[in-house]
Amino acid sequence: MTNLGTMKRFLLARRPAGMPVEEDFQLGEVPVPQPEAGQLLVRAHYISVDPLQRPRMQESSSYGQTIPLGGLVVGRMVGEVIESRNPAYREGEFVEGMLGWQEYALSDGGTHKAEYAPGLTRVDPALGPISTALGILGMPGVTAYFSLLDLGRPQPGETVVISTAAGTVGSLAGQIARIHGCRVVGICGSEEKRRYVVDELGFAGAVNYNATSDLAGEIRRLCPGGVDIYLDHVGGATREAVLTNLQLRARVVLVGYISGVNGARPTVADPAIPLMSRRARMEGFIVYDYEDRADEARQAIAGWLQEGKLSYRETIVDGFEELPRAFISMLNGGNIGKQLVRMAGAR
Ligand SMILES: NC(=O)c1ccc[n+]([C@@H]2O[C@H](COP(=O)([O-])OP(=O)(O)OC[C@H]3O[C@@H](n4cnc5c(N)ncnc54)[C@H](OP(=O)(O)O)[C@@H]3O)[C@@H](O)[C@H]2O)c1
């Protein structure tokens, strides 16, 4: 193998206080590693910025391991195998995994992914552009599919409310609910996003939470018969507003709490009362429980894509060094669909 010189990577320079800033991340340069027997070397084409990375930057993460100070920023990557000393992988294949914010990564070829393990998934470029392995055909896609179908259990004619509606998970989950005959109402943070989910994705309605002082009232207006399923990606006051509008026997799926990941802890009412009075069910969801069934989601989503039943967007910036800015922008709602960073020479 020829010497590939050096590569860039981002380390966690300090633990963000509230919303991360660029100085929390330190750009470093190290030699590109050489794979040993059993290992493969992956060159990044796209690197992902995901909300789930933010809690991992705290001293103690709410789920999975925390990133040590000075450690490599843990994040997902789709890349090309450029050297393989592992018989299970060939050079030229594409893989996805939790390989970190770095231009090249070594892997032992393992496939275990639970709790942020760096296990690989082989990417099938026939299913969609390789970037989608970080979005609708990747971890967020598996999340949208199973949180809605396994935990939400939608029935035709039911009303499904989805927060972060124009984001990666929300925009896909809403379309899957629509395909299953549900009436879908979104919650999102701008007028552009509101129009996107209604005009392009076929949601029955949506509310821009930044443009109303009465979110609960807006949801009541858009869901006059009540909410049968709520996919909660936000937590806090948004969840409280939806809970006051539940239909009998509603299902509330706890998928994310992005309103709280930067340390904001708004005071919200105890959810027990609306849940009890509506005989509703609230259940937590973690995508890694579905590792063994992920391909079922990928195939179904790819099929709907090919049939033209759903669409997706990506918000892409170019250049490895943009990673911290892209991450901060996503946490501020700057993305429609999946926020990605594209490396030079990406496919
Ligand atoms: N449980 C699991 O296994 C699992 C797996 C994947 C993702 N998730 C969770 O699912 C959620 C969506 O993830 P994603 O990857 O699809 O991200 P995304 O929706 O593509 O991007 C994040 C979006 O969150 C919204 N947001 C940011 N701060 C907010 C706040 N204070 N209040 C309300 N909305 C806010 C922004 O949209 P607006 O402009 O609309 O505010 C932003 O665009 C996250 O909470 C994530 O942690 C959970």
Write the layout of secondary structure elements.
Blueprint: E1 6-12, E2 25-31, E3 40-48, E4 77-84, E5 94-97, E6 104-107, E7 121-122, H1 139-152, E8 159-162, H2 168-179, E9 183-188, H3 191-200, E10 205-208, H4 215-222, E11 227-232, H5 236-243, E12 246-254, H6 272-277, E13 281-284, H7 294-306, E14 314-318, H8 323-331, E15 338-342
Parallel strand pairs: 8-9, 8-11, 9-10, 11-12, 12-13, 14-15
Antiparallel strand pairs: 1-2, 3-4, 3-6, 3-15, 4-5, 5-7
Helix pairs in contact: 1-2, 1-7, 4-5
The protein binds NADP nicotinamide-adenine-dinucleotide phosphate (NAP).
Residues 50-52, 140, 143, 164, 166-170, 188-190, 193, 233-234, 238, 255-256, 258-259, 285-287, 330-331, 333, 335 line the site of NADP nicotinamide-adenine-dinucleotide phosphate (NAP).
Quick synopsis:
This protein has helices at 139-152, 168-179, 191-200, 215-222, 236-243, 272-277, 294-306, 323-331, and strands at residues 6-12, 25-31, 40-48, 77-84, 94-97, 104-107, 121-122, 159-162, 183-188, 205-208, 227-232, 246-254, 281-284, 314-318, 338-342. By secondary structure, it is α/β, with parallel strands linked by helices.
